Amino acid sequence: MKSEPAAFGIDDLARAPQRTAAWDGVRNYQARNMLRDEFRPGDRAFFYHSSCGEPGIYGTVRVVRGGHPDPTAFDPAHPHYDAGSDPTDPRWYQVEVRLLRRFARPVLLEVLRKHSEGPLRRLLVLRRGNRLSITPVTDDEWNFIHHLARERPE
DNA sequence: GCCAACGTTGGC
DNA sequence: GCCAACGTTGGC
Questions:
Q1: A29 touches strand B (CB under 7 A)
Q2: A79 touches strand B (CB under 7 A)
Q3: N or C: which end of chain A has fewer CB within 10 A?
Q4: What is the pLDDT of residues A23-64, one digit of tens each?
Q5: A61-101, pLDDT tens digit by residue?
Q6: A54 Cβ within 7 A of any nucleic strand C atom
Q7: For residue range A94-146, what is the model confidence (pLDDT) as tens digits?
Q8: Is nucleic acid strand C under 7 Å from A135's C-beta?
Q9: Segments making up each domain of chain A, as ranges
Q10: CATH homologous superfamily of A2-106
Q11: Would you say the C-beta of A138 is within 7 Å of strand B?
């Protein structure tokens, strides 16, 4: 799951009450479908920092609440407001995540790329032109990236 | 700031 | 449905 740390980074999640926050503001239909249909409580995800000095994976989160309507879409004062989203037929969805682990050594994009011909050859974040903010990760990729981070996979 | 890549919009 | 124009993403 990607986020720009200037907007919401892993440290913001670490400071949040119960280290839990809504993953809101997603305004892409493909990502929306994953939030709405595929996320389940207990699922885990990497927390990726994008559009920043050192893009990469900074830790992991656990889903504590599955897909439900994103209330920021209905708030005219909110930057992610969508006038076209009908509250009786919500267009945008969010999940709630809790910080699982903040990596002592983040796995930077440049390090991930070193394995783009090997164990991470299918990692969508490394695919040219990929702009999806939420992408699936296989168990093997999960384990390998923990290895790169010198972390025991959870 | 640049630019490639992609998604969305809207005229036709 | 096509496609040009435009906006956004995101690495560099």
A1: yes
A2: no
A3: C
A4: 999 999 999 999 999 999 999 999 999 999 999 999 999 999
A5: 999 999 999 999 998 888 888 888 888 889 999 999 999 99
A6: no
A7: 999 999 999 999 999 999 999 999 999 999 999 988 889 999 999 999 999 99
A8: no
A9: 2-106
A10: ph1033 like domains (3.10.590.10)
A11: no
Å separating the CA of residue A130 from the C1' of nucleotide B7:
12
Which positions of chain C lie under 7 Å from any protein Cβ? 8-12
The per-residue pLDDT for A90 is 92
Å between CA of A147 and C1' of B9: 44
Residues A144-152: contacts with CB under 8 Å, at least 24 apart:
A144/A115, A144/A119, A144/A120, A145/A46, A145/A57, A145/A107, A145/A112, A145/A120, A148/A107, A148/A111, A148/A112, A148/A115, A149/A57, A149/A103, A149/A104, A149/A105, A149/A106, A149/A107, A150/A104, A150/A105, A151/A101, A151/A103, A151/A104
What integer pLDDT is reported at residue A76 of this predicted model? 86
- Please tell me whether any atom of strand B lies within 7 Å of the Cβ of A131: yes
Per the CB < 8 A criterion, the answer to whether A41 and A95 are in contact is no
Question: CA of A69 and C1' of C8: distance in angstroms?
Answer: 23
Whether the beta carbon of A42 falls within 7 A of nucleic chain B: the reply is no
